[in-house]
Design brief:
This protein has an eight-stranded mixed β-sheet with strand order 1-2-4-3-5-16-6-15, with helices on one face. The chain has a four-stranded antiparallel β-sheet with strand order 10-12-8-13, covered by helices on one side. A two-stranded antiparallel sheet has the order 7-14. The protein is an alpha/beta fold.
């Protein structure tokens, strides 16, 4: 990945420019995380690495009660901040995915079988760490106008996400605004994508068990044809749900697993299905469980199958606050000029950053990680995912500028 450093950028004279030495260190830190991915709530090595580096910078990070993840204040104890003082939190997620790294001869590919940082959380973590180190140095120089909180959150990939536990532990105490980035392989490194309002989708998990007496495939009329029942649930439920809400809400049921039977001439007694429910509209999302469960029951009953449904609430959409989104836009323009910001569409992906935004205003930016000119189409949650590492510097300077521009109210 690219390691070039930029020169003659609009923000070169703006306080908090990332030094070349720290940039190189952060790239190495990201590569170390990439080589040692850890799943949600198991990020002990990752937590220890972040903690050690922050402590070496003279900061006092605190490990979250779950045993993984950290919170770290810069510029004072934010919990003691007055209600009128603007406090900005920078959030990173630190967990990896349970998939193999398929990048081939990459020198920093995962060393852990069937584990990979295929969603860019290693980049998010490194960006917040780097911003914290720069802001700590600015604080020592008396150049940090208001306190900042760093939040390194575990288990973003584990529904309903580690954000709820982090919030319950008090990470938002004293915080008035919060920001985050998410890697986007469709955006060139050096740019960020921004959007007012919803930028991600709600995402829930759905598991269905169907049961019947079983029988011989020669006599399906004497039993419950369970394979057909399962197939009709797979096909008909998304169509039913889609006709019961405004199509602009983007409510979608998508199946990822279906299992039933062992022999070609035996009608099975059980079938299992699993999938996700995604929704662009937060109000329709709140109604989704009742609608989806009702549709499954209708189709199952029509085919005389007994259904057992587990509906796991996931996350609501990330809804960017316009004021905080504009803060990120102003910060990026101050660093890299107006051409470094582009509009982005609402994604159907889920992100538990949304839980923070239920409590305080905030915004998430799409951090470009595609090498400019690259024609290979990459996506998140794929084993060959990688990021142009010049994006680390972009993210650090976006956050440092946001902290310096953040208003008192």
């Amino acid at each position: 990945m690219s390691l070039e450093s930029e020169a003659d950028l609009p923000g070169d004279t703006f306080p908090g420019v990332l030094s070349e030495a720290l940039r190189v260190e952060l790239v190495a830190f990201r590569r170390d995380l990439h080589m040692h991915p850890e799943l949600g709530n198991q990020e002990f090595r990752t937590t220890a690495a972040i903690k050690e580096r922050l402590e070496r910078a003279g900061l006092k990070p605190r490990v979250l009660p779950s045993g993984t993840g950290l919170v770290c204040d810069i510029g004072g104890d934010i919990g003691d901040a007055s209600d009128g003082e603007g406090v900005l939190a920078l959030r990173a997620d630190i967990d990896a995915l349970p998939i193999p790294d398929t990048k081939g001869e990459c020198p920093y590919r995962s060393t852990v079988p069937d584990r990979a940082h295929a969603c860019g959380h290693d980049v998010h973590t490194t960006v917040v760490l780097g911003a914290g180190l720069v802001l700590a140095d600015l604080h020592r120089q008396g150049l940090l106008p208001r306190p900042v909180r760093l939040i390194f959150q575990p288990a973003e990939e584990v529904l309903p996400g580690g954000a709820a536990g982090a919030i319950a532990s008090g990470v938002l105490k004293g915080v008035t605004r919060i920001v985050a980035v998410h890697c986007d392989p469709r955006v060139d490194a050096g740019k960020v994508g921004l959007r007012h309002g919803p930028i991600t989708s709600a995402c829930d998990r759905l598991e269905v068990s169907l049961a019947g007496p079983g029988g011989h495939t020669a006599r399906p009329h004497l039993t419950t044809d369970l394979v057909t029942a399962a197939a009709r649930v797979v096909v008909d439920v998304p169509a039913l749900v889609g006709r019961r809400v405004d199509t602009r809400a983007g409510l979608a049921v998508t199946w990822g697993r279906i299992e039933s039977g062992h022999a070609p001439n035996v009608i099975p007694q059980s079938a299992e299905l699993a999938g996700t429910v995604r929704c662009l509209d937060i109000n329709v999302w709140r109604q989704a469980p009742d609608m989806v469960v009702a549709a499954i029951d209708e189709v199952a009953n029509l085919h005389k199958a007994k259904s057992e449904i587990t509906y796991v609430r996931g996350v609501p959409p990330v809804v960017n606050d316009p004021v905080v989104t504009d803060l990120l836009r102003d910060a990026m323009v101050a660093r890299r000029g107006a051409e470094s910001v582009e509009s982005t569409e609402q994604s159907l992906g889920g992100e538990d950053f949304s839980w923070y935004l239920e409590r305080v205003p905030g915004a998430m930016a799409r951090l470009g990680v595609r090498t400019p000119g690259e024609r290979t189409v990459r996506d998140l949650h794929q084993g060959d995912f990688d990021a142009d590492e010049s994006a680390i510097k972009v993210g650090v300077e976006l956050f440092t500028a946001a902290a310096l521009l953040h208003p008192a109210r």
